[in-house]
Amino acid sequence: MKFWKASNESERGATLLIVSASLVAFLLLSGLAIDLVALYLGRSEAQRAADAGALAGAQQFVLSGFTSGGVSQGSVTTLATNAATAAAEQNSVGGQTLTSSDITVPTPDFSRAGNPLITVQVSKSLPTFFMKVFGTNSVNIGATATAEAFSPGSGAGPTFCATCLKPFLVPNCDPVHTTPTNPVCPGGGNYGYFINPDGTIANPGAYPTGIVGEPWTLHTDQVPSHWYEIAFDCSQSGSNFATDVQHCSNNVFNCGSTLCALDGNKVGPNDQAVSCLITYGNGCKSNGNTSTDSIALNAGGSPPFTITAGTGNPFFAAGTTIAQSASLVTVPLFDGHDISSGGASVTVVGYLQLFIQEIKHQGKDDFITTTVLGASSCGTQGGNACGTTGGGNTGGGGTVSGGGAGFIPVRLVQAP
After folding, report:
1. Which of 122, 149, 176 is the last residue of a domain?
2. What is the residue range of 351's domain?
3. Given this model, what pLDDT does residue 22 score?
4. CA–CA separation, 152 vs 380, rounded Å?
């Protein structure tokens, strides 16, 4: 009996030692897990910052007019780098604000015509907590993102599907730049192309030698009882037309899509709808109106343009420089042939991005004064059906979406 009693006494406290050792190991593992979760969260935040920066930089390829030849590679590099850095700096990583020293923007990749790429790298050193026990006081967190602005042209690439178009027809007939001449336009050799038959921009660059900044008037009378307007649903409804002017149409079009021309003189719906659009609904007049927001060339008299919010802008304070505006619209181009009254249809060959400055009612017509900010082909006619997945900067399949204020598709891609 004494033997067994002594043996039991010698094992007393063993369980306590085991539990204590287990608790220490558990605490170390828990601390390590907490550090790993914090670092994983920081990595996600760094990726979010890199994504935001890359998209903001790629957007400058479009807003500056670079994709339409409005500015040089050197100029857009500065614009895109500054925009990317500023957008990334709006984010925090691990509770720490990013600074310009945490952000690297290499020179954009211009090796693909009509498809510039920009890459943003974010790196931030985050302190650890429990990992200090193992001598690791901080860990460097990094993330990289690449974005593209895809401008369809004659080269291979995904099909460009446009939505949120405004229901105005613009003929592929440039009255300012008559060379090369578009033979299907009325008036013989009085008009050139906006978009060449091969999908390239006929006259890239800044106005007056190029189209970026060129004035254009919408809603002019082409033939009796026929204006440059579209019935997206082919219903010939004036109210449907007005709705499409003020809001985004969900219809999706690509190169070769057929549009129904709107018959008749829709001066009333057009006047009020455009007036509502460009004043954000604050000045829906029936006798014309001026855009709440304004647009002007930058110092030196050349693109890029600066868009400034007006007093009626519900989203931004007056005087704020903005990238989005209700007056910034995308309209389809058709080949330019004469349109016959009654049931006419046209084929999409490209798109123009316009800034609507004002609408004036004169007699039996409305004159909508706009500025051309860019042009784009819609790619290969008869391409992939809209909604097809795939494609990108390294392949020819699938589709990409654009239109509206965005005009040319801007999206994140895998670095080549």
Report:
1. 149
2. 159-388+395-409
3. 61
4. 8
- Do 248 and 164 belong together in one domain? yes
Q: How many CB atoms are located within 10 Å of the residue 34 CB?
A: 14
Q: Of the candidates 119, 149, 179, which is a domain's last residue? A: 149
Number of domains in the chain: 2
Q: Are residues 184 and 116 in the same domain?
A: no
DSSP for 367-390, written as a single string: EEEEEEEEEEE--STT-SPTT---
Is 176 found in the same domain as 125? Answer: no
Distance from CA of residue 340 to its chain's centroid?
35
Q: What is the largest CA-CA distance in the chain?
A: 123
Cis? peptide before 204, omega within 30° of 0? no
Rounded Cα distance, 283 and 285, in Å: 6
- Identify whether the C-beta of residue 49 lies closer than 8 Å to the C-beta of residue 145: no
Q: Is the peptide bond before 127 cis (omega within 30 degrees of 0)?
A: no
Helices (H) and strands (E) in the chain, counts: 5, 20
- As given in the structure block, the two tokens for residue 176 are 């300012």
Bond from prior residue into 158 cis (ω within 30 degrees of 0): no
At 395, phi and psi to the nearest 5?
-145, 170
Pair 87, 168 in one domain: no
Query: pLDDT digits over 316-360, tens only?
Result: 999 999 988 999 999 999 888 877 766 678 888 889 999 999 998
pTM: 0.82
Q: Is 358 in a helix, a strand, or coil?
A: strand
Give the helix ranges, DSSP H, for 64-140.
73-89
**Pairing of β 117-127 and β 138-149:** antiparallel
Instruction: Confirm whether 416 is domain-assigned.
Output: no
Q: Is 41 helix (H, G, I), strand (E, B) or coil?
A: helix
| pLDDT tens per residue across span 145-188 | 999 998 876 455 677 888 899 998 888 999 899 988 999 887 76
| Of 287, 283, 248, the residue nearest 271 (C-alpha) | 287
